[in-house]
Amino acid sequence: MSQLLDILGSKYPIIQGPIGHLNDPKMVAAVCEAGGFGMLALGFVQDLEKVRQLAGEVKELTDKPFGANLMIAMNPNNEAILEFLAEAGVKTVTTSAGSPKRIYPKIKELDMKALHVTLAAPLALKATEAEADGVVVSGTESGGLRTTGPESTNLILIPLVCDMVDVPVVAAGGIADRRGYQAALALGAQGVQIGTAFLASEESPASQAWKEAIIACGDAGTTLLPMGGMAMRTIINPKMDKLMASGADLTKEYNMGDAGKAWSAGDFDLFPAGGGQISALIKEIKPVKDIIEGMVS
Ligand SMILES: Cc1cc2nc3c(=O)[nH]c(=O)nc-3n(C[C@H](O)[C@H](O)[C@H](O)COP(=O)(O)O)c2cc1C
């Protein structure tokens, strides 16, 4: 058994990537039942009762291990959430969006394991110094929040980090099928984290319009939309295409606060659909079991 599988406790080293506010215990359980590591996205959940309820619902649907993602800088209640999760029997979490130094002492005190998500090699090293048990390394092709500075693709970043750290490395970004999964392992990763492909799955709580936007996205169909000091990878639509061609300042055209409403209503003029570059390879809405089995077959 690999070190990563030992940490996760799942059959396959395939982690469900957290997607903003999207949480559905049925989806988490479906990933676990298919052999992956399902995860609750608790980055923006501050209500402790909600955490208890979500974890309880997952436990009713599966007896397999599952985890949760905590966004370090976004949530003041992370320490209390960790205590709830430990009580619920969650053994492994992932952390992102902030300095691991702030949260790893509590994780260790609770005797939990954790993988820290990093977008750049030096930060992966810092995460291990803060005692992360592994790192999820997310190249520029990934969906989700990115930096506005220069970034590497996973083809560069994964081997770079594997050469720097002695903890398991998980590749996040650009993976939806067997080829991507095998490529990540060949680069030295022990596993993968899947965002966009699960977002477009049958069980995903995302709106049908959002799933269809991912399916319709082709080669070079995404771009990094700057948002304050960060950027969000989004699927280019006709309105956005026109704005980009006119040289408009996109930070003035879109407000990150509208993303949740736009994505659930399918109103991508309000805010473009989030999705990774891998959207170009996702051609149908499939059950998570088929996606996972396709990867490991
Ligand atoms: C729309 C969207 C929202 C995301 N939100 C989060 C988040 O809230 N926290 C986080 O750690 N990662 C987030 N991610 C990143 C994913 O968990 C995952 O690491 C990434 O999508 C992997 O790349 P892929 O989309 O190519 O599979 C998000 C990704 C997408 C597409």
Offer a concise description of the structure.
With 297 residues, the chain is α/β, with parallel strands linked by helices. 39% of the residues lie in helices and 17% in strands.
Question: Would you write up a description of this structure?
Answer:
- The chain has 2 domains: 3-205 and 282-296, Aldolase class I (TIM Barrel, Alpha-Beta Barrel), CATH 3.20.20; 208-279, no CATH class.
- It is 39% helix and 17% strand.
- The protein has 14 helices and 11 strands.
- Helix 2 (25-33) packs parallel to helix 3 (48-61).
- The model has no long low-confidence stretch (mean pLDDT 97).
- It binds flavin mononucleotide.
- Flavin mononucleotide binds next to strand 3, strand 9 and helix 9.
